[in-house]
Amino acid sequence: LGLLPGDVVRKINGRELPAGLDLQDFLGIYSAGEPLQLVVERAGRPVELRGNYAPTAVARVAPIFASAAPS
Q1: Which of 17, 24, 47, 51 fits a disulfide with 1 by CB distance 3.0 to 4.6 angstroms?
Q2: Please, are residues 18 and 26 in contact by the beta-carbon 8 Å criterion?
Q3: What angle do CA 48, 5, 47 make, to 5 degrees?
Q4: Could you tell me the CA-to-CA distances from 9 to 12, 35, 56 in Å, in that order?
Q5: What pLDDT is recorded for position 30?
Q6: pLDDT, tens digit, for every residue of 6-38?
Q7: Distances (CA, A) of 23 to 5, 44, 49, 62, 70
């Protein structure tokens, strides 16, 4: 879709991203291949991006548990 580092997603398909809701959780209501229209804030200005939703698995960068094994 063309997201860049520093972009702030404001709307998806005309719906504002609710405060406190993670973007990945919000995208969970869409199916792979579904068309998306995003409005992002980039350098203080709104930018419209269009494309099809293509979710990909992302490796976890931090462990779920702080210790090696549960106690």
Answers
A1: 51
A2: yes
A3: 15
A4: 8, 16, 18
A5: 92
A6: 999 999 999 998 888 888 888 889 999 999 999
A7: 14, 19, 15, 18, 30
